[in-house]
Amino acid sequence: MLIRESTTPDRHLAREIVSFTRRSARRYKRSRGSWGDRFVDAYSWGLGIAVSLTIAASFVLALRNEIADRASTGSSIVKAQWLVLPAPVLWTAVTYAILLVVANLARKLGPITVGGAEGTWWLSLPVDRRPMVLPHFLRKAVLTGVALAVVYLPFSIVTAVDRDIPEHFLASGTFGAAGVIAVALAAFQQIGLPGPGLGKMISLPVLLACAVLPGIAGGPWLAVLVGVAAVVLLAVVGTHAGEVRGEELIRGGAVTGHTGASLFMMDSNEVLRALGSGRKTVDGGRAAGFFARPTGSPFRALIRADVVAFLRLNPPVVRSLLWLLASIAVLLVEGGLPEFAQLAIIVIAGCATASGMGNVARKTALILELDALLPLHPALVRTSRTLMPCLAMAAWMTVLSGILVLLGASDPALIGVGALAGVGMGAGTLRSATKAAPDWSAPPVDTPFGPVPRAQLGSLMRGLDVTILAMVPLLVGLYLGYTPWAVGMVQALFSAGIVMVAVLSKPKRA
Fold it and tell me: Could you tell me what percent of the chain has a pLDDT over 90?
């Protein structure tokens, strides 16, 4: 039951229900552990965070000094830049992309949600929902802003070497407030105040303005301005927080719980399934005529089914194009990045794009027994699963290699190497989709650097290892500036070997 106009007694009753639930939850958690366990957990977390921050700080400072000491166009993959992208434009685009990702994730995860137990009896009570959902939403928005401010600080240190320390902190605070605005805009879309389509259209220019502000050295008034705007938006959202529909609250809570549990168990396949659970599919009317045509063999029928499933599950075309533009932009930035950073970004873009092409394999890997019922050899079934990812990644890598050749990074032979690399990367998506969840019951292995969870890391790296391996000859050709015939031969062997491993190896239960 949705209550839009609530009285003061109802609001007090709702607050009492919330406080009682949280007191009971805290009491139950305290009864399940001791102060010694909490101290050990706090010490372990603190030590791990301190070590991670130390490593990150040393890496950031080394990268900052490397960028600051470089010449304008020296030591880049593209030897002769005929097009130079101003560095502030690239960093603003990266900031804008991060804000769009935050807003998109906030929309998928809620941001106004209730948990499973809360949705069972809170939503059925005839009381105001706002006291039930507002504190959690405000906590989520504030934590998001703080996390983004912490993340933006090393980014500002690396990209703006001419700033002093106070300016870096002001830019980080501005970006953190911009992240709160992104979460608030996602909450507006969830409530439905500006309308489903109008909300997205409004959020795009607003987030673009928020992405430009952290790069402007205008003193503390910019941070204050963005902070005031964030507080105002949170206040407006707070007055309408009780108007979110019950099914939307439960959906956001389910997605949030699924994603959080998958992250805790470090299961990348489940994270992608959770975030893509609400993705809409296209109309299957056109596919009906395609299915009505006769097939000559079960293998052709399976290939046709996998092709239609790949198209109906909406392959991430826009995301793939954005990663393609990001790979090219880092090569054209004014001043240039170090060669290892340029190659690393190309690898990250390739792995991210390949991961999005494994939707069919990830969904079919949930019930592997169905593939065993098909009147085909298991190798033929896995070949059909890898067909569309291999073709899609071969096309993506061909376009990327062609652009690199036009920019003068290598000779035209790199295009063929890129196409072969895409085939291996597409086969890696099947290996990644059929990997088993990490088994945390296996003990870690003692090493000179401390205990290492080797079994869990092996499970997490399954699929990603061959995807990176498929790109190694291409990266060698980019580093050399030309493509020897040996690089093409090695690339063909690598891609063929990866396809054979993905097709012939027995998949594990995902």
Answer: 19
